[in-house]
Specification:
By secondary structure, this protein is an alpha/beta fold. It is 42% helix and 14% strand. The strands form three sheets. It has a five-stranded parallel sheet. A three-stranded antiparallel sheet has the order 1-2-3, with no helix packed on it. The chain binds S-adenosylmethionine. S-adenosylmethionine binds next to strand 3, helix 10, strand 5 and helix 12. Keywords: Cytoplasm, Methyltransferase, Nucleus, S-adenosyl-L-methionine, Transferase.
Length: 412
């Protein structure tokens, strides 16, 4: 939140203004909120974005928190449920009103929760859904703005920016540092490494993980189940031509090699010199049906298209690249490489450090895939308990319970 001035203009202190806004929010008093928005215009901070000093709650948090289902009620269970539903309905109106008046969807409180995280934790489904919708709108708007900016910028600039730059604020230059959690931004912070830095950094490979120089998890063995299911989803019959982008620990490539539906040919694109050395040491360059392409997919894939290579299945899982890179991959490259009845998939880890980001990204990706001419089906994969997996890893990048495995095809 931008710091508001210390005194109001009507004799009331700013703290009193904030208290009034928070009270109106928790009571779902839209009339009073309307008045607050009109009257308390802080030059640097909108009334809808104030934060309560002891909890860091925004008006959105307050509106949601007061919908919390009562634990000790006197009525029957049914009556309690009914009460909760009524409160939630008035919460929905208030949250909608705040969002329409510019409230920031992903402002975090002192508990590191966005309003959506709070709604999720409290099991308030309709409020959670409203916050997901708000996140999707903000992310889509931002990604469109970025496209316009890109058009204005020098066309050949391929500088990497981590896993995306999206933020819910409409204008990137107006971003406030304390509101830094958005889906794509969370990823950027999670990795905190650009593609060019990553590709020239030393790597450490152990039996259960591949780390970069800053101990970011590039790949971890717990993802093995996801890789197996992804290979199963793609290899529907023997004798297919498959392309995998990003070798990492070679988990999915081993699943492909050992699959009951053995592929006729198996191409792998890998850009990191240390990973390529490991591949060489482990004999991947000499396997009968394997072709390894050393270099970035951005350079290799256009060559494969020019050579007329076509695949029945493609898997995409790179590291330290932006969402814009990924979008370039599926909007520009897949069309030239995938057989018209082929299938492709990708590692769906965007926003996976909190449920709301994961859900927002799923919708954003779905829309972008649709725009590029793909249908996507999602399969749920239950994950094991990951609590003990993160020792020695800089940041826990996975914080959602189940994995949604995408299978994409050209639209009919
Ligand atoms: C997350 S790992 C892949 C893990 C793999 N799916 C597995 O099952 O072990 C990502 C890999 O992509 C590679 N990579 C990153 N950027 C790349 C790029 N632009 N082109 C090709 N490979 C890239 C990384 O070096 C790394 O080996």
């Amino acid at each position: 939140m931008a710091s508001p001035p210390t005194a109001g203009t009507d004799g009331q202190s700013l703290e009193e203004h904030i208290q009034e806004i928070m009270r109106a929010s928790s009571k779902h008093d839209i009339e009073r909120l309307e008045k607050c928005i009109k009257e308390y215009s802080f030059p640097e901070c909108k009334a809808v974005d104030v934060q309560e000093p002891t909890t860091g709650h925004s008006p959105l948090h307050a509106s949601i928190a007061s919908c919390k289902p009562a634990v000790n009620g006197s009525g029957t269970e049914q009556e309690q449920e009914h009460e909760t539903t009524d409160v939630e309905a008035s919460g929905v109106d208030t949250v909608r009103f705040l969002l329409e008046n510019g409230a920031i969807w992903n402002q975090v409180d002192d508990n590191n929760e966005t309003p959506g995280c709070l709604a999720y934790r409290l099991g308030l489904t309709s409020l959670y859904q409203l916050m997901v919708d708000a996140g999707v709108r903000a992310e889509m708007l931002l990604s469109r703005l970025e496209e316009y900016e890109k058009l204005d910028d020098d066309e050949g600039d391929d500088a990497d920016n981590g896993m995306g730059t999206a933020s819910p604020q409409a204008e990137p230059e107006e971003q406030d540092e304390s509101l830094a959690v958005s889906t794509a931004q969370a990823q950027a912070q999670a990795q905190d490494v650009s593609s060019s830095v990553y590709l020239s950094s030393a790597l450490a490979l152990s039996s259960d993980k591949l780390l970069d120089e800053q101990q970011n998890g590039v790949m971890m063995a717990w993802e093995g189940g996801i890789m197996q299911r992804s290979a199963d989803a793609l290899l529907s019959e023997p004798g297919m031509q498959i392309l995998n982008i990003g070798f990492g620990m070679g988990i999915i490539d081993s699943c492909i090699q050992n699959h009951v539906n053995k592929p006729a040919s198996h191409h792998i694109v890998e850009a990191h010199p240390a990973v390529l050395t490991e591949m060489r040491d482990k004999g991947w360059m000499n396997k009968a049906n394997v072709v390894v392409h050393s270099g970035k997919w951005q350079d290799i894939l256009p060559q494969l298209v020019a050579e007329g290579e076509v695949f029945d299945a493609i898997y995409f899982d790179t590291f330290a690249e932006s969402y814009a890179d990924f979008r370039d991959f599926f909007s520009e490259q897949v069309i030239g490489l995938l057989n018209e009845r082929g299938k492709w998939s990708f590692f769906n880890g965007m926003g996976a450090d909190r449920q709301i980001s994961y859900d927002v990204y799923q919708r954003v990706v779905e829309m972008d895939l649709f725009e590029s001419g793909f249908d996507v089906e999602w399969e749920d994969v239950t994950l094991p308990d990951l609590d003990h997996e993160w020792e020695g890893v800089r940041r826990k990048y996975w914080n959602v319970h189940s994995y949604r495995l995408p299978v994409c095809k050209f639209m009919d």
